[in-house]
Write a structure and sequence with these properties.
- The protein has two helices and no strands.
- The chain is an all-alpha fold.
- It has one domain (about 5-70).
- The longest helix has about 55 residues, at about 20-70.
- The mean pLDDT is about 85.
């Protein structure tokens, strides 16, 4: 996962026509914001639904990643 951060940051820099610094800072801000959810959501899923809930949450995140990859890489 962590190897995708610099790759995505480079891709973002290539795709941004203007304000590349703003785009990069927005990306990194959202990265850390989402990372905080990645630390909290599995714990909440564990409390509410046990380990099956954590597994379903992880499966859902993987499906979101695969779907966004399929859409963006057309």
């Amino acid at each position: 996962m962590f190897s995708t951060v610099p790759a995505a940051n480079l891709y973002l820099g290539e795709q941004a026509a203007t304000a590349k610094g703003t785009a990069a800072s927005l990306y990194l801000s959202l990265y850390y914001f989402d990372g905080s959810f990645g630390a909290v959501l599995p714990g909440l899923a564990l409390l509410w639904a046990g380990w099956p809930g954590v597994a379903l949450l992880c499966l859902g995140i993987v499906l979101i990643a695969l779907t966004s990859d399929a859409i963006l890489c057309r």
